[in-house]
Amino acid sequence: MMKSITLIGAPVETGAWRRGCMMGPDALRTAGLGRALTELGHDVTDRGNLAAQAMTVPQARNPAIRDLDLCAGWVATLQATADDLGTETVPIFMGGDHLMAAGTVPAMARLAEADGRPLFVLWLDAHSDIHDLDSTESGNLHGTPVAYFTGLSEFAPHFPDPAAKVDPANICMIGLRSVDPHEKRAVAASDIDVTDMRAIDEHGIAAPLRAFLERVEAANGRLHVSFDIDFLDPSIAPAVGTTVPGGATFREAHLVMEWLHDSGLVTSLDIAELNPFMDERGRTATLMVDLVSSLFGKSVLDRPTRSQ
Fold first, then answer.
1. CA–CA separation, 90 vs 269, rounded Å?
2. pLDDT tens per residue across span 248-273
3. Residue 308: pLDDT above 80?
4. How many CB atoms lie within 10 A of CB 188?
5. Is 290 a catalytic residue?
6. Do residues 1 and 42 make contact, with C-beta atoms less than 8 angstroms apart?
C-alpha cells in the first residue's frame, strides 16, 4: 500500500556529549533512504533539515547541563512540526541525538489529539531516557525526553510546555539494557511497559511487541516509533556514541520492522543517535535504510544471499 512519507532532518547534537549526530540526516540521505522508499512505491517528500529556534532560557540548577538554550530551541522547533504536517503523511524524523524525541513525540501527540485518537510510543532503545534536569549527572539531555513528554517531571521554565503529553501507559520500551538507579525507580513508579534484553533472551521479541500492537489497535491509536541506533548490537551498528553490548540482532531488528509493517499502525518514526563520524564506511546508515525499508514493505527475502 502506497503511503505519503515526509523526510525531515533533525540534526540535533547538543543533547549528547559526543559531536557528530548533526551529520545523521545527510548520512541517511547518502545511504539512499528516500530512493529506497520511492522504489517501494511510496510518495516521498524531503523537507531538508530543520534549524533550532534562537532561545534564551534561565540557567538550570544542575551545573552539569550544557547547551540548554540550544536544546530548548530544538524542542520548540520540532514541536512546531505539528502545525503543518497533518495526519495524511508519515513523517520520518532523521536525527540527530535522542533529545529530538522531546520535540517529535509531543508534536505527534498533538496531531493524534487533533485526529481524536491517543498516541502510543514504541521506544526501541538501550536506555530509558527518563532523567530530568535535576537528576542527570552527565548533563546530556538526550537522556531526558521520556520524562518530558510524559509530564512525569517538570521542565519549565527551561523547555517550552509540551504541545501534548503521552500517557505513560501508552509507552512500550523494548531493548533496555543500560538503566541507572534513578531511571529504574522512575520506570518502576510509572505505567510504562518494559521489555529488557534479558526478557527478550528468555522469551523472544515477538510476544511483547504483539501484545503492544494489539493494545494500539484496540484503542484505535496512532503509533510513533522512536528508534535509537543503540537498540541494535554495536557489532552490526557501530555508529553511535552510546554503544551498549548485547543489543538486538539483525534478525530481531528486522522482525520488529516487519511486524510493524504488517500491523499497518505506524504513523511516524524517529531515527535517533546516528553518528556517521563513528561509522565504518557507512554500514550503520545502510543498515538503517534496510530496516526502514522493511518497515515500509520490503521483504528480507529480497536481499541477495551471495555476491552476484
1. 8
2. 999 999 999 999 999 999 999 999 99
3. no
4. 9
5. no
6. no
User: Could you confirm whether 228 is annotated as catalytic?
Assistant: yes
Cα atoms in the 13 Å half-sphere on the side-chain side of 73: 15
Backbone angles phi, psi at 158, to 5 degrees: -85, -40
Q: What is the pLDDT of residues 269-289, one digit of tens each?
A: 999 999 999 999 999 999 999
The residue count for the chain = 308
Active-site residue flag, 125: yes
Which one from 13, 129, 183, 270 is the annotated catalytic residue? 129
Domain coordinates of the chain in residue numbers? Answer: 4-300
What's the CA gap between 224 and 250, in Å, rounded? 21
Verify whether residue 191 is a known catalytic residue: no
pLDDT tier, 303 (very low <50, low <70, confident <90, very high otherwise): very low
Is 142 part of the annotated catalytic residue set? yes
Phi, psi dihedrals of residue 193, rounded to the nearest 5°: -85, 125
List 13, 67, 125, 252, catalytic entry:
125
Which residues neighbour 95 within 8 Å (Cβ) at sequence distance 6 or greater? Answer: 10, 11, 12, 21, 24, 25, 270, 271, 272, 273, 274
Cα distance between residue 218 and residue 253, in whole Å = 24
- DSSP letters, 68-101, are HHHHHHHHHHHHTTHHHH-SSSEEEEEESSGGGH
Indicate the class that CATH gives domain 4-300.
alpha beta
Question: Would you say residue 3 has pLDDT above 50?
Answer: yes
State the pTM of this model. Answer: 0.95
Is it the case that residue 86 has pLDDT exceeding 50? yes
- Read off φ and ψ for residue 232, nearest 5 degrees: -85, 155
Tell whether the model's pLDDT for residue 305 goes beyond 80.
Answer: no
Give the mean model confidence (pLDDT) for residues 206-212. Answer: 96
Catalytic residue from among 13, 67, 97, 142: 142
Mean pLDDT of 181-196: 96
Please identify which residue in the block is written with the cell numbers 533533525: 10
Please say if 84 is a catalytic residue: no
Q: Give every CB contact of residue 235 below 8 A, 6+ residues apart in sequence.
A: none
| Residue-level pLDDT at 307 | 42
